[in-house]
Amino acid sequence: MTDDLKFSTTTPAQWDAFIGEHPNAHVLQQWAWGDLKAAFGWEAERVALTNSKNEIVAAVQLLFRRLPFRLGTMAYLAMGPLVRQHSSSSGRGLPAANPFEADLWKAIDDVSRKHHAAFLKWEPGIFADATVSNQYATLGFRPSPQTVQPPNTVMIDISGSEDAILARMNQGTRRKIRQSLKNGITYSEGTKADVAIFTGMMNTTGERNEFGVHEPAYYQKAYDLFVAQGNAALILAEHEGDPLAGIMVFAKGQTAWYLYGASSNIKRNLMGAYGVQWSAIQWAKAKGCTQYDMWGIPDADEVTLEAQFESRSDGLWGVYGFKRGWGGQVVRSLGAWDKVYNPVIYAAYQLVLRIRK
Fold first, then answer.
1. Cβ neighbours of residue 339 under 8 Å, at least 6 residues apart?
2. Backbone phi, psi, residue 10, to 5°
3. Residue by residue, what is the 3-state secondary structure of 266-318?
C-alpha cells in the first residue's frame, strides 16, 4: 500500500458523503442499508480506505449471513466496491494500475475470511463495464447461477421537463397517469403510522403476483432508517378513505430506486398505481435524480420479454407489463460472481440450491 493511504474507521456521515458523491452511488452501499440488513439476520462490515487528508478514496460494505444446514457463512458484496475514479478504473474496483485497488480487494478477502465465509458473492451492478468482465477471473471470481438482486431492470431517464419524461412513455401509460390524476385520488407522503397500511398492501400484492414480501417490521425499519432521514419516501394513493397503492422509493446521488411497491385489489380501475408511481418520479426529480431504476423484471432478453409479458403473470412477469410502459431502457447487470474460499462447503451449498430448485 502506498505510504499516504490507510484503512480507517469512518462515521456514517463521512461514509454516505463519499457514496453520494460517487457517479455510481447506490442505495445498497449506504450505511443505513447495512443497518437495515443487520436487523434481519445479516451482519454488516464496512471497509474504508483514506488518504493523508483523511478523505475516503475507496469504500465497500460487506454483508454476512449464515448458510442453511450449517454450511458456514456467505459474504455478500452488492453494487460496489466504490473507488474514486481515475483514468485506469471504471470506479467498480476492477483490476487496474492504481495499486490501492489491489489492497482493497485484499482487505475484502481478509474481512470475509475473518467472518469464516465459505465464499464471497459479488453483484457488481449495472454500471460495471461489460468489456472487462473477463478480468473478474484475475480476482478469483467465477460466474454464479444464483443471484440475490434481480439482474434485469428498466432504467428511466427523468432528466428534462415533466412533459419530456411523459413523452418518452408509451401512449397507454401516459393516458393512465392522466386518468389517475382526474379520479379524486389523494397522493401524499406517508407517515410512520402509514407503514402498516403499506405493508398490508404489500401482502396483497405478493399474493396476487406470486412473489415473496418482507415481514412488516422490515418496512418499518426501512422507513425509520431512510424516510426519516430524507433519503427515501413512502408515497401513498388514497380514494375516499380506501388505500389504493403505495411506493417506497429511495434516492442517492443521481439515481432513485423503486424498491418496494404495492397496490390493493379494490378500485384498480382508478389507476392509482400509475399516479403513485408518477408521484414517486416527481419526488425523485425534486431530489436531483436524473435516472429512475424500476428495480426488477424477469431475467430474459427484451425479445422474450415482449413476446411473453401478455401471457405470463408469475413472479416478476406480473410487474413487467406495468414497468415496460414508462419509457425506460431494459438493462441487464453483470449478474452474480462467486469467489470460493472453501471448495467443499461451496460444493455442498451448490448441491442444496439444485435440490431446492
1. 109, 119, 120, 122, 139, 140, 141, 142
2. -145, 160
3. CCHHHCHHHHHHHHHHHHHHHCCCCEEECCCECCCCHHHHHHHCCCCCCCCHH
Q: Which distant-in-sequence residues (6+ apart) come within 8 Å of 279 by Cβ? A: 187, 235, 237, 247
Q: Per-residue pLDDT tens for 56-113?
A: 999 999 999 999 878 889 999 999 999 886 544 455 555 444 556 788 899 999 999 9
Q: Is residue 259 within 8 Å of residue 293, measured between CB atoms?
A: no
Contact assessment for residue 73 and residue 115, using Cβ atoms and an 8 Å cutoff: yes
List domains and CATH numbers for the chain: 6-148+334-356 (3.40.630.30), 152-332 (3.40.630.30)
**Contact (CB, 8 A) for 15 and 56:** yes
Q: How close are the terminal C-alpha atoms of the chain, in Å?
A: 44
Residue 20: which residues within 8 A CB-CB, separation 6 or more? 252, 253
The answer for residues whose C-beta is within 8 angstroms of residue 345's C-beta and 6 or more apart is 67, 71, 72, 118, 119
Which stretches in the chain have pLDDT values below 70? 1-3, 85-100, 127-134, 357
- pTM value is 0.92
Task: Calculate the alpha carbon distances from 87 to 96, 147, 238 in Å.
Answer: 9, 30, 50
**What distance in Å separates the CA atoms of residue 131 and residue 313, rounded to the nearest whole number?**
34
What is the pLDDT, as a whole number, of residue 90?
53
